[in-house]
Each structure stands twice: as structure tokens, then as C-alpha cells.
Amino acid sequence: MNIIKLIVNEKEYHVVAEPHDTLAKVLREKIQLTGTKLGCEQASCGACTVFVNGKAVQSCITPVMRVAGSTITTIEGVADQNKLHKLQEKFVEKGAIQCGYCTPGMIMSTLAYLEENQNPTTSDIKEALSGNLCRCTGYKKIIEAVEAYVNDEQSSINDNDTYKMVGQARPTIEAVKKVQGTADYADDFKIKNALHCKFVRSTHAHAKIISINTRKAKALVGVKAVITGKDLPIKFGVLPISQDETAMAVEKTRYIGEIVVAIAADTEEIAAHACKLVEIKYSPLRSFFDMKEACEDVGTDEQIHSHSKFNNNIHKKAELRFGNQQKGLANADYKVDVEFDFQGLNHGFTEPHAATAWWDENGLTIITATQVPHYLHRYLAKVLEVPMNQVRVIKPYLGGGFGGKSDPFPHEIIVSHLSRM
Ligand code: FES
Ligand code: FES
Q1: Is 45 in the pocket of ligand 1 (CB under 6 A)?
Q2: Are 61 and 52 in contact (CB under 8 A)?
Q3: Whose C-alpha lies nearest to ligand 2, atom 3?
Q4: 42 — phi, psi (to 5°)?
Q5: DSSP per residue over 95-122, as a string?
Q6: In Å, what is the CA distance from 361 to each residue of 57, 344, 358, 364, 376?
Q7: How far is the CA of 118 from the centre of ligand 1 (A)?
Q8: Average pLDDT, stretch 198-220?
Q9: What pTM value is reported for the model?
Q10: How far is the CA of 101 from the centre of ligand 1 (A)?
Q11: Which atom from ligand 1 is nearest to the alpha carbon of 48?
């Protein structure tokens, strides 16, 4: 443990840091400047871009020890006393912000680039921002905002035209917060004395769980609770016909990465260490990695979900037909036979999942990156067996979802249960 000095946004800080702490972690967790966002934590998305001694760096991979004594600028230091920087104004005006999670990184990378090249072409701007990923905007408006700034365009928004709303672009109401890095997303909230949770996930696509030994993990100093699937056996699912999910694997695992054990501890590092001390014995069952094979009839032991109606691994059959296809085919000049195969895709939102839960005399409160608080509300009440009026779900700003944050997620149920314990 070391005490290091950082000058951040012209203010001097002395912080206690571990040798493995990143600059992003120190900025967000010790200095409470959460405008610096974490998307990938592996130098791929650019959301965490800040300046160190005037140069843009990805703070998620910058060891804080290496920049001790440096001068840092974060997105919170770009506006002058709440007066937006002209580039921030152009982002607002041009609608270059949707979820806003990539925005601080986009602005920092742009400002760094413009220090080197004050007259960039459109392709220069595209090249300069190629290390910053945006899932929402399609980049067009971001490029337009940078061009408008470079060309010192006059504002196209005339606030005196109060009644001329229709037919002209207006900035979104939260745009100013998002360009300043003051919009709070799920992982930006800090709760007093919070514990941290980590999971042990299945390494098998399909396997019976023979035994789980959590003794060593429980004995580790700083570990507060260890749970397995048996603690949360009640099933849930968004559709009435699909009440077949459990928050954790119960008796068997059904996919690689399914949560088998969850651990709450004083720090993230202790929780992660405790996960390594858990011993799980599996007996592998037949796994399915091929779509056609997965549709074949199978034995009971090979069914991923035992309640499947079809003696195979098909959950639901759906067929969509429009018009009279037979007639259409009979009259067609050409007939083409095509088969389409595609893999499952991740929705690729920029903000990772995050949830914080606590209980008090009113019941459970959870702050979480969700698109549909109502689904979560319903299934937290069901799985945790509490009345719905004792469950409060808070959805803050969301760093993209695209459907991928719609369903209730295991981690939301698990942290709610652990906090109750
Ligand atoms: S590049 Fe640092 S969080 Fe993605
Ligand atoms: S606005 Fe860029 S990721 Fe959402």
C-alpha cells in the first residue's frame, strides 16, 4: 500500500493506492470522479480516456503508481465552472449523445487529437476517434459535432424560438449532464460500507454438480457470505411459459458461465480470492454446440431442461407465415432455396451490468443497469418471497441496452439476496 499524489482537474489529492490499482479505479472510487467510464477494462472501447500531463491515456490499463505525481484532466475538468467547453456544446447541439456512456471518452480523445491537428478533415476525425466505440449513435452525429467545433459553426439552436419545437432538432434534456460526466449510471453510486460480490461460474456447458466445497472460501478473513443455487431455487422468467430460470445453477449447470457460487466480501479482491478457494466436482453430460444436433430427439439425461415438452431440447416452436405461400410459389418466375444459419449475438452495450442492493425497514432497494424495472420488480418479489410493495427498483441512466438489459438477471437477484443475509 502506498500514498501517492495526483493533481486532478487542478486540485491536489493524496490517495492510498495498491500496486495493482489502475488510474481509472482511483479516479472513480477514491476521488469520486465517476465521469470517467469503464466499458471494457482492456483498452478496447476508449470510454475511460483521460489526460495525463496533457496526453490522452486509457485509464483502465494505466497503473496508478506509474502516474504518481502527474497532472490529470478528466471530463469533469473540461467545462469551466459549469460553462461548457465549445466542443461539449457542439455535442449537445448536434445530438451526438444517446446513452452518453461513451461521451466523456469521445470528448477527451477529440480534445487530445485537436491539440496535434487543429484543421482535421472528416477522415482525420474518423481515424482519430477510431479507438472510441459508440454503440448507439452510428458515429455520424459525433463526427458532425467535431466538425462543427473545428469549423466554429454558429449554434443552430435558437432558444428564443420557444414555440418552434416541431420540425427542428432539440437537445435531449439530459445532454448537458452527459457531456460533463455528471450523469450517474448504476456503477457510479456508492453505498456506505458496501460489500462486493464475485461469482464462481461453470466451466461446463452441461454437467451434474456432484459436490461444492465452500469451506476454505468461508474461512477467508473478510468473506461475509457464500451461497449456492440451493439458496435461490425459485424459478422465474419474463414470459409465463418460460418460468424456467434460476438465479444460480441448481443440481446441474446448463451453460458455460452459469453462476454456481456467489461470494460477498469486504473488498473485490477478497471476494475474487475466495472464489479461487471453492472446489466443485462436476459429472459432464452431453453438450450441444450445434443447432441441428440440439433439435434431435434425445434421452432424458440429455435434456437441458427436464420440463421440455418435445423429448428434445426445443423450448418453443414458432412459425410465421404471411399470405398464401403455396400460391406465391406456384406463380413465381424463379424459386430459390436458401438456408440461413446464425450464431447468438451479444447486444454489445457499452456500459457493463452493475447492481447495488440494500435492505432497510421498507424492504429491498436495488440500483441496477436495467431497461425494464417492472420485470425485475416482479421477479425479485417472487424469488425472494417478499410482497411487491417491499421491493424498490431504481433505474438510473443506462449506458445502452438494446434489449440485452431487459430481462431480470441472476446477479440482480443474487446481490439482493446476499444483502438481505
Ligand atoms: S478502453 Fe478503458 S474501459 Fe474500455
Ligand atoms: S451514446 Fe455512445 S455508446 Fe451510447
Answers
A1: yes
A2: no
A3: 134
A4: -145, 35
A5: T--SS-SSHHHHHHHHHHHHHH-SS--H
A6: 45, 42, 11, 9, 20
A7: 26
A8: 98
A9: 0.91
A10: 11
A11: 2
Which residue's CA lies nearest to atom 4 of ligand 2? Answer: 99
C-alpha cell at 284: 459432464
Q: Spell out the domains of the chain, with CATH numbers in brackets.
A: 2-77 (3.10.20.30), 86-158+167-183 (1.10.150.120), 196-285+352-420 (3.90.1170.50)
The grid cell for 218 is 468461508
- CB 105, CB 60: distance < 8 Å: no
For the segment 142-154, the average pLDDT, to the nearest whole number, is 93
Asked if pLDDT for residue 6 goes beyond 80, the answer is yes
Pocket lined around ligand 2, Cβ cut-off 6 Å: 97-102, 134-137, 350, 400
Measured from the alpha carbon of residue 58, the closest ligand is: 1
Which amino acid would we find at residue 352? P
For residue 125, give the amino acid letter: I
Q: What is the pLDDT of residue 159?
A: 60
Is ligand 1 within 6 A of the CB of residue 39? yes
What values do phi and psi take at 139, rounded to 5?
Answer: 75, -25
Alpha carbons 56 and 74: distance in angstroms, whole number: 10
**Model pLDDT, residue 316:** 80
Looking up cell 461470494 gives 263
